[in-house]
Amino acid sequence: ILINFYKENRLEFDYVSYIPMYKKDEFDRGYNQSKLLAQEFSKQTGIKLIDILKKVNSTKHQNKLSRKDRFTNLSNSFKIIDGLEINNRKILIIDDVVTTGSTFKAVSSEILNEYDVDITFFAVASSKTENEDN
Fold first, then answer.
1. How far is residue 79's CA from residue 76's CA, in Å, rounded to a whole number?
2. Residues sharing a CB contact under 8 Å with residue 108, sequence separation 6 or more, in sequence order
3. pTM score, whole prediction
4. CA 24 to CA 45: how far, in whole Å?
5. What sign does the dihedral 35-124-13-104 (CA atoms) show?
6. pLDDT (tens digit, 9 = 90+) per residue, 56-92?
7. What is the DSSP string of the chain?
8. Contact 106, 56 (CB under 8 A)
Protein backbone atom coordinates (compact mmCIF):
# COMPACT_ATOMS: atom_id res chain seq x y z
CA ILE A 1 0.00 0.00 0.00
CA LEU A 2 2.74 2.45 0.97
CA ILE A 3 4.88 1.68 -2.07
CA ASN A 4 1.92 2.06 -4.43
CA PHE A 5 0.95 5.41 -2.89
CA TYR A 6 4.55 6.60 -3.11
CA LYS A 7 4.88 5.62 -6.76
CA GLU A 8 1.43 6.80 -7.87
CA ASN A 9 2.04 10.25 -6.39
CA ARG A 10 5.63 10.47 -7.67
CA LEU A 11 6.90 11.50 -4.27
CA GLU A 12 10.54 12.12 -3.49
CA PHE A 13 12.34 11.64 -0.18
CA ASP A 14 15.96 11.79 0.84
CA TYR A 15 15.54 9.46 3.81
CA VAL A 16 12.99 7.14 5.36
CA SER A 17 12.59 6.53 9.08
CA TYR A 18 9.99 5.15 11.49
CA ILE A 19 8.36 5.68 14.87
CA PRO A 20 10.67 4.13 17.45
CA MET A 21 9.57 1.97 20.36
CA TYR A 22 10.94 2.05 23.88
CA LYS A 23 13.82 -0.45 23.94
CA LYS A 24 12.28 -2.80 26.55
CA ASP A 25 8.86 -2.70 24.85
CA GLU A 26 10.44 -3.65 21.54
CA PHE A 27 12.42 -6.42 23.20
CA ASP A 28 9.27 -7.78 24.87
CA ARG A 29 7.35 -7.74 21.58
CA GLY A 30 10.27 -9.02 19.56
CA TYR A 31 10.00 -6.42 16.80
CA ASN A 32 8.92 -2.88 15.93
CA GLN A 33 6.24 -3.08 13.25
CA SER A 34 6.91 0.48 12.05
CA LYS A 35 10.61 -0.27 11.67
CA LEU A 36 9.81 -3.41 9.67
CA LEU A 37 7.57 -1.37 7.35
CA ALA A 38 10.28 1.29 6.91
CA GLN A 39 12.95 -1.34 6.24
CA GLU A 40 10.85 -2.91 3.49
CA PHE A 41 9.98 0.50 2.06
CA SER A 42 13.69 1.38 1.97
CA LYS A 43 14.56 -1.94 0.37
CA GLN A 44 11.96 -1.55 -2.39
CA THR A 45 12.61 2.13 -3.15
CA GLY A 46 16.34 2.46 -2.52
CA ILE A 47 15.74 5.37 -0.14
CA LYS A 48 18.21 5.24 2.73
CA LEU A 49 16.77 4.17 6.09
CA ILE A 50 17.97 6.25 9.06
CA ASP A 51 17.26 6.43 12.77
CA ILE A 52 16.23 9.95 13.73
CA LEU A 53 14.68 9.44 17.15
CA LYS A 54 14.78 7.17 20.12
CA LYS A 55 11.92 6.61 22.53
CA VAL A 56 13.18 7.27 26.03
CA ASN A 57 10.04 6.47 28.06
CA SER A 58 7.67 3.55 28.04
CA THR A 59 4.17 4.89 27.50
CA LYS A 60 0.67 3.51 27.58
CA HIS A 61 -0.66 2.21 24.27
CA GLN A 62 -2.23 5.14 22.44
CA ASN A 63 -5.24 3.12 21.25
CA LYS A 64 -6.32 2.61 24.86
CA LEU A 65 -6.43 6.32 25.71
CA SER A 66 -8.85 9.18 25.16
CA ARG A 67 -8.08 11.78 22.52
CA LYS A 68 -6.95 14.26 25.18
CA ASP A 69 -4.78 11.73 27.02
CA ARG A 70 -3.00 10.68 23.82
CA PHE A 71 -1.31 14.06 23.51
CA THR A 72 -0.05 14.14 27.11
CA ASN A 73 0.93 10.45 27.11
CA LEU A 74 3.75 11.10 24.64
CA SER A 75 5.08 14.27 26.24
CA ASN A 76 8.89 14.10 26.45
CA SER A 77 8.90 10.47 25.24
CA PHE A 78 11.05 10.98 22.13
CA LYS A 79 14.58 12.32 21.91
CA ILE A 80 16.41 13.31 18.78
CA ILE A 81 19.56 11.53 17.68
CA ASP A 82 22.18 14.27 17.44
CA GLY A 83 24.77 14.67 14.75
CA LEU A 84 22.73 13.71 11.72
CA GLU A 85 23.37 15.63 8.52
CA ILE A 86 19.76 15.93 7.41
CA ASN A 87 19.09 19.68 7.30
CA ASN A 88 17.20 20.78 4.19
CA ARG A 89 16.21 17.19 3.40
CA LYS A 90 12.87 15.49 2.82
CA ILE A 91 12.19 12.82 5.42
CA LEU A 92 9.49 10.16 5.28
CA ILE A 93 8.47 8.69 8.64
CA ILE A 94 6.41 5.49 8.66
CA ASP A 95 4.04 4.21 11.33
CA ASP A 96 1.54 1.39 11.35
CA VAL A 97 -1.62 3.22 12.52
CA VAL A 98 -2.67 6.84 12.93
CA THR A 99 -5.63 7.82 15.08
CA THR A 100 -5.49 11.39 16.36
CA GLY A 101 -2.08 12.22 14.94
CA SER A 102 -0.64 12.81 18.42
CA THR A 103 2.35 10.55 17.76
CA PHE A 104 3.09 12.39 14.51
CA LYS A 105 2.77 15.72 16.32
CA ALA A 106 5.13 14.68 19.15
CA VAL A 107 7.68 13.26 16.73
CA SER A 108 7.63 16.20 14.31
CA SER A 109 7.94 18.69 17.17
CA GLU A 110 11.02 16.92 18.51
CA ILE A 111 12.65 16.68 15.07
CA LEU A 112 11.88 20.26 14.04
CA ASN A 113 13.36 21.60 17.28
CA GLU A 114 16.74 20.30 16.11
CA TYR A 115 16.66 20.00 12.33
CA ASP A 116 15.38 22.04 9.39
CA VAL A 117 13.65 19.28 7.41
CA ASP A 118 10.48 18.61 5.46
CA ILE A 119 8.64 15.73 7.15
CA THR A 120 5.99 13.52 5.60
CA PHE A 121 4.24 10.77 7.53
CA PHE A 122 2.83 7.55 6.10
CA ALA A 123 0.63 5.15 8.03
CA VAL A 124 -0.76 1.86 6.82
CA ALA A 125 -4.11 2.36 8.52
CA SER A 126 -6.23 4.96 10.24
CA SER A 127 -8.72 4.29 12.99
CA LYS A 128 -10.51 7.58 12.28
CA THR A 129 -14.05 7.29 10.99
CA GLU A 130 -15.97 9.70 8.77
CA ASN A 131 -17.91 11.10 11.72
CA GLU A 132 -14.89 12.00 13.82
CA ASP A 133 -13.49 15.49 13.56
CA ASN A 134 -9.75 16.07 13.70
1. 7
2. 119, 121
3. 0.82
4. 30
5. negative
6. 776 555 556 555 565 565 567 788 998 899 999 999 9
7. -HHHHHHHTT---SEEEE---BHHHHHHHSS-HHHHHHHHHHHHH-PEE---EEE-S----GGGS-HHHHHHHTTT-EEEPTT---TT-EEEEEEEEESSSHHHHHHHHHHHHH---EEEEEEEEE---TT---
8. no
